[in-house]
Amino acid sequence: MHLRVRALELEKTSPAKSAPAQPSPSTPANGFDLSKHIALVPFFRESEVDSYFGAFEHIAAALNWPKEVWSLLVHCKLVGKAQEVCASLSIEQSLDYDTVKTTVLRAYELVPEAYRQNFRNSDKTANQTFVEFAREKCMLFDKWCQASKTTTFKDLRELILLEEFKKCLPDRTVVYLNEQKVTTLEKAAVCADEYNLTHK
Fold first, then answer.
1. Non-local CB neighbours of 4 within 8 Å, separated by 6+ positions
2. Which portions of the chain are predicted below pLDDT 50?
3. How many C-alpha atoms does 119 have within 13 Å on its Cβ side?
4. Helices and strands (H and E) in the chain: how many
5. CB proximity list for 30: less than 8 A, separation 6 or greater
6. What is the pLDDT of residues 37-66, one digit of tens each?
């Protein structure tokens, strides 16, 4: 892979030896040739969905791929359920990388609640060292925070308080709050009271 990256860098810096070629069907209007870069896109594995987009974004940023072609590159590697849900998007939606990413993550239920459960329910395995387990816990916590868009101390405070609040509620109320996608303790409390009033 390093050789391919180096070859692409050399190709970029070498002066043009002939007249500019006519754009091929795989070359968008900005001159980016998808066919030359598709081999560098990581393979999509349904068992590693949450790490796929991070890996892709690192490669895309390192190689300076224009963001408007990211969705096209990703589409070429999708398989299984990811391919199915993306096929149901409109053309405009399928050309937007962030929409494609969100749709795929939702299809695999990689939403904040799923990340929270993964973090809380992960246990050390027999063949795992404590260092590896600690690293895994950190990674799961970071994914939960990232999925919850937690970037400040205030956001983190709300995240933990909201989780603690939900622990004290009946399951059906928690399901309702998750459906409402509440992100603050105050909003959760108001929604829980409204739900209980209407479901007595």
1. 39, 40
2. 3, 7, 10, 15-27, 29
3. 19
4. 12, 0
5. 66, 68, 69
6. 888 888 888 877 878 888 899 999 999 999
The one-letter amino acid at 179: E
Residue whose token pair is 């096929």: 87
Cα–Cα distance, 22 to 17 (Å, whole number): 15
Contact 183, 162 (CB under 8 A): yes
* Report field, pTM of the whole predicted structure over 0.90: no
Give the pLDDT score at 154.
94
Q: Which runs of E-coded beta strand occur in the chain?
A: none
User: For residue 162, what are its two tokens?
Assistant: 């909201």
Res 50: pLDDT: 75
Of 53, 19, 23, nearest in space to 35 by CA: 23
How many angstroms separate the CA atoms of 159 and 137, rounded? Answer: 17
